[in-house]
# Entry
Amino acid sequence: MLKIKLMRTGKKNQPAYRLVIAEAKSRRDGKCIEVIGNFQPLANPPLISIDKQRYDYWLKQGAQPTSTVGNLYKKS
# Structure
């Protein structure tokens, strides 16, 4: 089963995240199928960019967003 989830990037104490399509059982920072956006929580205001066409495409293919990704999508 595919999930739309966050992959952590950035330095120590300076997190940044990528929104990725990955297998549900894969590791947080493991292999992903596609990167569809990014999230920078430390920016003021936090930066959220999501490719909405690809997000909708993957939802139609059966991918399920995590609760955090769903909330970020609503805010963007």
Notes: The CA atoms of residues 1 and 25 lie 8 Å apart. The mean pLDDT is 94.
